[in-house]
Amino acid sequence: MIIRKEAVVKTAFDNLKNQNGSVLALVLMVMVTILIIGITAIHDTAIEGKISRNSTIRSISFYRAEAAAREAIQLLENSNTPLTDLIPGSGSAFAWIQDVGFDVQADAGASAINSGLVSNAQYLVVYDGFAEEGEMGMEEDTHLYEYIIYGRGFYDVRDQSDCTLQMAYRRRF
Fold first, then answer.
1. Is the whole-model pTM more than 0.70?
2. Residue 14 and residue 95: Cα distance in Å, rounded?
3. If you ran DSSP here, which 8-state letter would residue 116 be given?
4. For position 2, what pLDDT does the model report?
5. CA 156 to chain centre
6. How far from 169 is each of 94, 130, 140, 148, CA to CA, in Å?
7. What is the superkingdom listed in this entry's lineage (predicted)?
8. Of 104, 121, 137, 157, whose CB count within 10 A is highest?
9. How far apart are CA 19 and CA 151, in angstroms?
């Protein structure tokens, strides 16, 4: 039996004209494409949710740290007896460290005091000595004392999402 080349080509073209089942294949391809797009959208939404949560936690930690530092500054500002309250070693309610080279990250919480106004926040007052004074016409019997105030805030004890900030404070007495 001899098969002619034209008969084989004609049979192949006849099979192409038969479109039974082609709609099923097309629908399956569209469904797989929609499934992939849906899975990608769900994944992106989950990641965006985590980013949003982390941003919120970071902001809360920062605001708590700032509030604690401002609380310490307000306590220093409201001191009625600055010569006894604001001097290290005076037995005041402040946490004092007299080392100018203090590293708050390495010694975090060493002598920090929990904030009385804000939960999950602490402050630390570091006495930095006398500030340099210029010719401002001030009386000779006063000195400009310099302090470094650290505030630390965190969202939750279980999280490692804490924020530490540093503020400078000067007071003449």
1. no
2. 92
3. S
4. 61
5. 12
6. 14, 12, 21, 6
7. Bacteria
8. 121
9. 74
Going from N- to C-terminal start, the domains of the chain cover: 32-172
| Six-digit token string for 14 | 């006849």
What burial letters (b/e) apply to 10-49, b meaning 16+ CB within 10 Å? eeeeeeeeeeeeeeeeeeeeeeeeeeeeeeeeeeeeeeee
- C-alpha torsion sign, points 90, 91, 93, 96: positive
Q: What is the pLDDT of residues 109-119, one digit of tens each?
A: 346 777 888 88
Rounded Cα gap, residues 86 and 124, in angstroms: 13
Look at strands 121-130 and 96-97 and give their pairing.
parallel
The rounded mean pLDDT for the chain is 75
122's enclosing H/E stretch is strand 121-130
Of the listed ranges 36-40, 41-45, 102-106, the one predicted with least confidence: 102-106
